[in-house]
Amino acid sequence: MSTYKIVETPLESKAYSKVLWRLVPFLFLCYVVAYLDRVNVGFAKLQMLADLKFSDTVYGFGAGIFFIGYFIFEVPSNIILSKTGARIWIARIMITWGIISSAMLFVTTPESFYVLRFLLGVSEAGFFPGIILYLTYWFPSERRARVVALFMTAIALSGVIGGPLSGWIMQAFAGVNNLAGWQWLFLLEGIPSILVGIAVIFYLDDSIEGAKWLSQEEKKVLADRIHNDQKGIVDHGIAHTFTSVKVWLMALIYFSFIMGLYGISFWLPQLIKSTGVKDVLNIGLLTAIPYGFAAVVMILVGRSSDRTGERRWHTALGAIFGGIALIFAGLYSDSTVFGMIALSVATAGILTSLPLFWTIPTAFLGGTAAAAGIAIINSIGNLAGFVSPFMVGYIKDATGSPTLGLYVIAASLFIGALLVLGLVKKPQAI
Predict the structure, then answer these.
(1) C-beta of residue 256 within 8 angstroms of C-beta of residue 118
(2) First vs last C-alpha separation in the chain
(3) Which one, of 141, 138, 126, 72, lies nearest residue 96 by Cα?
(4) Is residue 377 situated within a structural domain?
(5) Taken in order 159, 108, 197, 379, is the CA torsion positive or negative?
(6) How far, rounded to the nearest angstrom, does the alpha carbon of residue 214 sit from its chain's CA centroid?
(7) Does residue 21 lie within any of the structural domains?
(8) Residue 10 domain flag
(9) Is residue 9 part of a domain?
């Protein structure tokens, strides 16, 4: 494992500190509310299926169809963002999905469930790859593992906050104004996205040059670092990106990892319930444990990767540990203690592999190719968000247990890890 040290002046250190504290906490907040709206259907499931007489297959299909809309509109959305700037486009995305997420309270049939989940995917398309692209405007490649890990700990924090919050909403508001707890869940958790989306318009800057909170000297040193980082990266344009073997390899690896992410995200409440925990508030509180553990591991491993400059093994080992832990979660599915330990390790491993993965494609993509390439990788990868919950739901309906589904997801994580180790080259920077 090679090591390297970033050499920088006091001015550069000060500038990056300002950028980090100005952008990352706010983008973190945006992703927290985004992820809550994407996966709160996993908590709504605990009541909604019984109220509406939906099967697990219907739930899995509805949870996953989000990603079909996401897939179709991902690349156009990211290209638009690269042309219009992040501020206006990210705001549009967040306000739109907040409205649609709240409208989920009107679901009464499988068809209405499918339509609203599809539209939610359409409205959110471009958010995550747009933020990843936006971060490349501010941070050079050697800093991205730590920064992206900090940003993506929002997934973990949304679980820490969202689990107990969702459980409390569903229990405390059940029956208020003749609405079920799951209806209040959708309504109340959609509103923050709208409010934060409005705040984006006034807070974000599209580029280093437009940041009034940076001095001219700070702008210059940051712009020079980005310029030097992009040397040697050829912008082949959008058309070439669609035929790039590297891009499609990255998409396949990301698909393998996302199988794990949404296997956990959409089914964690149900997996905890299956260990013998029945109270919805207690289930919500217990879901905070795997996500809290994952948040700590993500930050520590991201720092290790940036400090050493090693990306491949850091990325692959997260997926390997995640897969092994999922197997143990299946083996101990009837034990709350051992099940929670396994699910905590699985969640940490899966979530750790994701931000480290993004250091690899962003190191060789530049210009318009970056906007299209990141979107292609993310959209193809997120098709696993359709496959994973639908597959687990189908298996659960067919066998009475989601355990076999966990084993399939574990195999997917192992495949992704092997592809990283076997096919991704070993450039010095990544």
Answers:
(1) no
(2) 12
(3) 126
(4) yes
(5) positive
(6) 29
(7) yes
(8) no
(9) no
The 10 Å CB-count burial string (b at 16+, else e) for 64-98 is: bbbbbbbbebbbebbbbbbeebbbebbbbbbbbbb
Residue 325 to residue 286: CA distance in whole angstroms: 17
Cβ(288)–Cβ(163) below 8 Å: yes
Cβ-contact 87, 205 below 8 angstroms: yes
Q: How many domains does the chain have?
A: 1
Rounded Cα distance, 276 and 368, in Å: 51
Quote the domain boundaries for residue 78: 15-423
pLDDT tens, N- to C-terminus, the chain (430 residues): 334 445 668 888 899 999 999 999 999 899 888 877 766 887 788 889 889 999 888 888 888 888 888 888 888 888 888 888 889 999 999 999 999 999 999 999 999 999 999 999 899 888 888 888 899 889 887 787 788 878 888 878 887 887 788 888 988 999 999 999 999 999 998 999 999 999 999 999 999 999 999 999 999 999 988 888 776 555 555 666 777 888 899 999 999 999 998 888 777 888 888 888 888 788 888 988 998 899 899 889 988 988 888 889 999 999 999 999 999 998 988 899 999 999 999 999 999 999 899 888 877 666 666 777 888 888 888 888 888 878 888 888 888 877 888 899 999 999 999 999 988 775 433 3
Question: Which residues in 278-306 are b (16+ Cβ under 10 Å) and which e?
Answer: eebbebbbbbbbbbbbbbebbbebbeebb
pTM score, whole prediction:
0.74
Kindly report the CATH number assigned to the domain that includes residue 54: 1.20.1250.20
